[in-house]
Amino acid sequence: MTTPPDEPFVAATADVSDRASIGARTKVWHLAQVREDAVLGADCVVGRGAYVGPGVQIGDSSKLQNYALVYEPARLGRGVFIGPAAVLTNDEFPRAANPDLTVKTADDWHAVGVEIEDGAAIGARAVCIAPVRIGAWALVAAGAVVAKDVPAYALMVGVPARRIGWVGRAGRPLERDGDDWVCPATGERYRETDGTLHPLA
Question: Which of 1, 6, 38 is nearest to 15 (CA)?
């Protein structure tokens, strides 16, 4: 039996809660788990073994590669890329037990989330330590550890992550041209003001 063209596809081995909302044409692949009240937009891809926590929101055309872990209450914009085995955390002070060694319950801690704006990309095995915001179209390199907010269009590398340049919407590092920054792939021009990059009309 074929799936209607606008229906989401969920692999037989995926675990998707009946309370999750899966958008049109979204694909959830083998062994992925999508928890209750998670909302995935249209045209998303959730790779093998990926995890989407309760109430997580993911915008249209986003992609979670294999074994990416997105813990609640993360919020992802449209066109966000989460690389293989990347992790978005949710606990500022992680402990399995309370100081008296009783097991922690949901009432014993406050979940904090990672927010990722439209078009941003998180490389393979990168870790975003909540609470943190990743600006639109930013690029976090593979293996980086992000512990502070990231400006839009920033190119972030290292542990802890630091900005080493700017990227355009095509994901390519921008090149300096006088007062402007230029994308070598698209020719789009940007200007930096007080540590913030803005596209020029």
Answer: 38
Q: What is the pLDDT of residues 8-35, one digit of tens each?
A: 999 999 999 999 999 999 999 999 999 9
| Residue 72 sits in the same domain as residue 15 | yes
Q: Check: CB of residue 134 under 8 Å from CB of residue 120.
A: yes
Do 176 and 112 share a structural domain?
Answer: no
Q: pLDDT digits over 83-102, tens only?
A: 999 999 999 999 999 999 99
Pairing of strands 63-64, 121-122: unpaired
Residue positions counted in the chain: 201
Look at residues 47, 45, 120, 113 and name the one whose alpha carbon lies nearest to residue 81. Answer: 120
The pTM assigned to this predicted structure is 0.94
**Residue 6 corresponds to which tokens in the numbers above?**
């606008």
Domain at 108, CATH number: 2.160.10.10
Shortest CA distance to 75 belongs to which of 38, 102, 106? 38
Tell me the chain's radius of gyration from C-alpha atoms.
Answer: 18
Strand 127-128 and strand 27-28: pairing? unpaired
DSSP assigned state of 173: B
